[in-house]
Amino acid sequence: MTTDRLRQSMTTDRLRQSVTTDLLRRWETLILALLVGVVVWASLGVDGFANGSNISFLLLDTTEIALMALTMTLVIVAAEIDLSVASTLGLSCAVLGWLWNAGLPIEAIMPICLLVGAVCGAFNGLLVTRLGLPSLAVTIGTFALFRGLAYVILGDQAVADLPPAYTGLATASVGPVPLMTVLVAVLAALAAVVLHATGLGRSIFALGSNEEAAYFSGIRVKRIKFWLFVASGVMASLASLVYTFRYASARADNGVGLELAVVAAVLLGGVSIFGGRGTLPGVLMAVLLLGVVRNALILADVANEVLNFVTGLLLVASVLAPNLGAIWRRRTSPQMEGKSP
């Protein structure tokens, strides 16, 4: 009896050790540790960072990036990419401003803007899935196309006389938590369920890991990829509504450069650039990490050039570090123990 209990205890200890080791090896654990460390550093070393108003601003300032990162995660897990999201955002902003100047009610304009995003995403999806073009090349092209079309529609003017009810809603908070952060949390929960707990999510991982094998196993590869691009466009347009109302200004250059922040957050969150691997919680933590770093540097009066350098550095690190981490995990896995390198 004593021997059985001893064996059971040893088995339990090994199981706990295995779970703990696996947790420490996960990329998301490192991101969480970095996030906590940066928050502690900023709270202690940067004046004004820990103020409730600044925390509220920080959360609000990451809204558009977080929204676009949700669908970008699904696209990259499927081994594709959409670099046109910020240009889709700008085009939707331009359409909103133009239709508002034309006298349409804002309640009619908002669904039209979402439709614009769906059309942009469908255009990308058709070029990728029907013509077989690489998504990187396609979305670099539409990155310029959609932004140029935004300038054609609205020019360089700014439409600022937007309804106060909506501009106020975009910046409203419940305590220190902005309402738009609640929106992000709800959509993130839905996206996480789709990616991690449904057959569609398993199909997305499968086609990202091996598209040919996914096709022969009966997965509708082209259909799934097409609708992922449509979802990416719609989410970019939703982000455009938040962006426009938050800044109370519809401009063709709204959101310039946000695509880099979105891609950086997704890759830094542990999503493989080659597809087939990643989690939404990791991406959301990376969005917060980038937001905290940027906010702390701004409060510390760091030059904009340094901010751009840090963003670029994190983008490179987001591609390099997970792959180095994967190599380390393989070399330290139980199967490799006792084997020569």
What does the model show?
- The protein has a domain at 63-259 and 270-280.
- 76% of the residues lie in helices and 1% in strands.
- It has helices spanning 2-25, 27-45, 52-61, 63-77, 85-101, 106-129, 135-154, 164-171, 179-197, 199-209, 211-216, 221-247, 258-268, 280-299, 304-332; strands spanning 173-174, 177-178.
- It has a two-stranded antiparallel sheet.
- Helix 4 (63-77) packs parallel to helix 9 (179-197), helix 4 packs antiparallel against helix 14 and helix 5 (85-101) crosses helix 12 (221-247).
- It is globular and about 55 Å long.
Biggest beta sheet summary: 2 strands, antiparallel
Give the low-confidence spans. 9-24, 336-341
Helix content: over 70%
Mean pLDDT over the residues: 87
Trace the largest sheet across and list its strands.
Answer: 1-2
Strand content: under 5%
N-to-C order of helices and strands: HHHHHHHHEEHHHHHHH
Q: What is the count of DSSP helices, taking H or I runs of 4+ residues?
A: 15
Secondary structural class: mainly alpha
Radius of gyration: 22 Å
Shape: globular
Distance between the termini: 42 Å
Total strands: 2
Tags for this model:
341 residues; mainly alpha; 1% strand; globular
